[in-house]
Amino acid sequence: MASLDEKWKALVKFESVVVDRERDVVRVTKELYDLHSNREQLRGVTSSCDYRLTIPFAPHLFGSGKTTFCHNYLELVRRFGETFLSKFASDPLRRTFLEKLKRASLLYVDLRGLKPTRPIEEKRNLEWALYFRMIEACCTSVGQEPEDEEVVFKECRTRPYKLVRKLRSILNIPSDQYLLVTFDEVGVLDESLDEFHFKRTHDGRVRPYNDFFGIISQLCEEPDLFFIVVGKSKGLSIKNYVAFGLSRVILHFIPLSPLDACSIVEFLERSLLKTPTQVPVCNVLCSSSFSVNELADSLLECTGGVPGLLTRAVNMLLNYIIARNQPFISKEECLTCMNDYDFRIICAEPFVERILNLDEDRRSVFDLLLMMALYRIPFQVYDILTSESFLYDAVTEMGLYRYPIDQNTFQVLIPKIFVVIFKNDPSISSLENILLGSLDVEPVDCFFYSKCRVFEGIVALRLVLMLSSKNRNELRELLCQLSPIWKQMKLPISTISPIHYIKSVVSSRETRSESNKSRRTFASTEWNKIIRETLYLETIYIPLDATSHSPDIIFQLQSPVEPKVLTVGVACEGRWRSEGIGWSDIIDEAKKFLDSVYDQVLSSAMDYHHCMLIISRCYSSGMFIGGDLFKVPDNCELVILCERDMEMLIDEEILNGLERAFHVSHNPTFWDFGLDLLDRIRNSFLSWQ
């Protein structure tokens, strides 16, 4: 058998292309134009002073495509000039600017080469070190050996106009041609505190980024010179004019969002193998029975569309397919490879170092972000996490990702391929274990929000934790007294396998862009797949009608006395509906789920398999309940939790907080829930560990 290293290799096999960066290019181009049209204000040659220098900036999200964007920005400007940038260029002045930008020269500067340099009297001068690093990078870009430091210092010193003249001379470009300088890996300044003389604040603190952007702001006074900066997280806030404290410079964050399925298809079709024939990647990986769309869906499922993860996964698949000389024949085969334990370890390892070294404070934030990712709780760009930090920045600093819902609203994205490494962390809690396992079984492309998703998710997690805990609970005791199935399960359950616990029943064909639209019901084939995956069965059929709904959460419990298994569906019916719910609605839900599972599964597996539907609903005084009688099948139970039951399972303050949040919005955000409520929910989970 092939060893781990032999079977899964990440050797580069193809030339990747840049896709889905239209919004980023438009945003950056607008910022560069603002600098161009307001440069006289920076130079103080006009009486107007309302412009504040804005620099396009991308924080350090590993694998988000920062470096690739830097290298390819000008190419993308030329590509999008007549399409996505056409509206921007509708003004004659902007059109002139855009045409000159298309002909600009690019200087890429990797700041990992920044170091103190001669002459000795300037050795710890950050400005001179930065100037010389730019000249070094410039020489390297044209194939020249860098000149001696002291010679260059005599020529340029720390005069911006002399530096720019020197750069243009090396690049052999005229004085009126645009020059775009991109600084990468700016985070090295964190490691340079002992190497340079930084300015100190009145309280003695050092802020190296104030010094760095101060130098950039002086260079921005030079005509036809522009900058993009990437590669730093902690200390550079999305709302930097407050948290960063550098009043003369605003950092305009470049989103660099993960790719969607359509963009991944384009990526696979346009990226070419590194061979003389330059075959498209999709042609190598896909057979006639396995389409590029299915391949894109599989990659999105595992990588979340993060460009760096996507590229690494494709390289690993290519190495595997080329070695065996046979393409994938189905989506199932491809997913089996990407779900392989060793594949995930090798693919994800370079990306997760930051999050595996969390301190105690950050660990609680990780729990919160896991809950937000699982329950699909969106957040706004300026939502405050603490008095000193924004939620947007916390996602960045922890090495996780954001997917934009709109310009100011985001979703926490945790790629599935990370899960196996997180779960291998010995410090992982049982709560985190369940949350991660639950994320791992969800369709990553379903950004669907609902009252059911949050509320039933909490119900399911509380039940799972309660039933696996050694602590006794009034509700658990009540269930055990009333339910023969609970007695047979012999609680508490001995082991928990979080991959079975929360299964979001949402159509896999819903896309992110459609996530806030109406919910759809499911065809029988979709129900087959959903239930089969949960129950590990070959076939099952759930009848469909125009008004039917599904249990939104399905989880599975394993008895410590083998082989008892209980599959539980949780449905939220009428909790916040003003007209309440009729008995006929409950019967419809029960018949659809319990009858189908009984007829097709339990009737032939009576000795070891049980099924239960829990319906949470709110009884209101005077509410009429009527309808037909319903006979619960053998080895099935229908549990209806009244308000008192729910308060035993979830405390009253959480229930009231959820009701307030959903009263504000059908799809409440982090702000609507509030940090206190989410913390209380998290603590309620932890209380059962």
Could you describe the 3D structure shown?
With 689 residues, this protein is of the alpha/beta class. It has 6 domains: 4-14 and 259-350; 22-251, Rossmann fold; 358-449, no CATH class; 452-486 and 530-538, no CATH class; 547-577 and 584-621 and 629-650, no CATH class; 652-688. The strands form 5 sheets. It has a 5-stranded parallel sheet, sandwiched between helices. Strands 13-14-15-16-17 form a 5-stranded mixed sheet, sandwiched between helices. Mean pLDDT is 81; it is low at 241-246, 444-450, 498-522, 534-540, 544-548 and 619-627.
How would you describe this structure in keywords?
689 residues; alpha/beta; Rossmann fold; 6 domains; 5-stranded parallel beta sheet; 5-stranded mixed beta sheet; 28 helices; 17 strands; elongated; P-loop_NTPase
CATH class of the largest domain: Alpha Beta
Strand residue percentage: 5-15%
Helix segment tally: 28
Helix content: 40-55%
Poorly predicted residue ranges:
241-246, 444-450, 498-522, 534-540, 544-548, 619-627
- Radius of gyration equals 29 Å
CATH-defined topology of the largest domain? Rossmann fold
What CATH architecture label of the largest domain applies? 3-Layer(aba) Sandwich
Spatial order of the strands in the main sheet? 3-4-5-2-6
Shape: elongated
User: What structural class should be given to the helix and strand makeup?
Assistant: alpha/beta
Count of extended strands = 17
Question: Main sheet?
Answer: 5 strands, parallel
Q: What is the distance, rounded to the nearest whole angstrom, between the alpha carbons of the first and last residues?
A: 40 Å
